[in-house]
Amino acid sequence: MLDRTPPDAYDNGDRVPVIVLPGIWEPWRFMLPLAKVLHAEGHPIYPVPGLRLNGAPLDASAEKVAEALSEHDAPRVVLVAHSKGGLVGKQLMLHPKVGHRVAGLVALCSPFGGSTLSLPVLARTPLGLFSPANSALTALAAEQAVNAKIVSIGSSYDEMVPNGTHLEGAHNITLEMAGHFRPLVSPSAQQLVLQEVRRFDTSPDPGH
């Protein structure tokens, strides 16, 4: 059966809100295994249904997230992203109107330097974004002011991003597991994401 979890199912909590950003061709519910772990620890979860399957160009995707963020009154949020979602998240951090509201980005398996699997024949498709020579990707890479607020978590081997997920100036972590999708459902990777989200969380401890 198709998952029909409504977007507001996990929007309550007393910790810093988390906006979840899936990868390309992934619906927001693809992030549910990780979102549920974060919500159980008090983080409201804000998905962005307007991204649909996240196949739009980078700037258009970031604008959709900016619109969604504008609908929430939380002064600060943390972004938790998978794959292309990490690129969208960094683009959002550079947004002139809402970028300042992003406390940090925790990205899983995000190809900040593109993927060596990208082929020239894909250049005019949504997958063309992942070419290391793509103009939108290289422009994003040149913007390094926000990198210190990014945690890039990569697998020991990623079949979709074999060249790795290292981002200059970011906090880079390599998991002791392989796979592009496995970290989303791995308890140890989920706990690591939670730990890194907490580094950006300035909310007072509940009950204090």
TrEMBL record:
Matches recorded under SUPFAM superfamilies: alpha/beta-Hydrolases
Name by which UniProt lists this protein: GPI inositol-deacylase PGAP1-like alpha/beta domain-containing protein
Domain GPI inositol-deacylase PGAP1-like alpha/beta: 71-166
Database matches in InterPro entries: AB_hydrolase_fold, PGAP1-ab_dom-like
Protein species of origin: Tessaracoccus flavus
Listed GO MF terms: hydrolase activity, acting on ester bonds
